[in-house]
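QA checklist item 7 of 12: single-chain prediction sanity check.
[x] sequence parsed
[x] length recorded as 101
[x] structure emitted
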Amino acid sequence: MPVEPLSQKEIEDRLAELPGWSLDGDRLTRSFRLGSHFAAAAMVVHIARVQDELDHHSDLTLGYNTVSLGVNTHSAGGVVTEKDFELARRVQELAPAHGAG
């Protein structure tokens, strides 16, 4: 079953439920600031595990004490789909355990 792109309205409605996430062109994006480089690196490892579980992967960038994500669905032509929001929700659930803000 192919993954369908979400409409602008659907994207806006879902973003309202995910504080800190935004639409940047054709990608959902979010950056998290953490207390240390080690905490940021640990969060990256946990995000990678979630991505493997979902078989859906973002661009993931580790900075000194930051983690940034950008995600869209390549198999749907590089647009935002429900798969992207599922990944965003799962990452959002991880963030408090890492002290991310």
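[x] summary fact logged: The longest helix spans residues 37-54.
[ ] second reviewer sign-off
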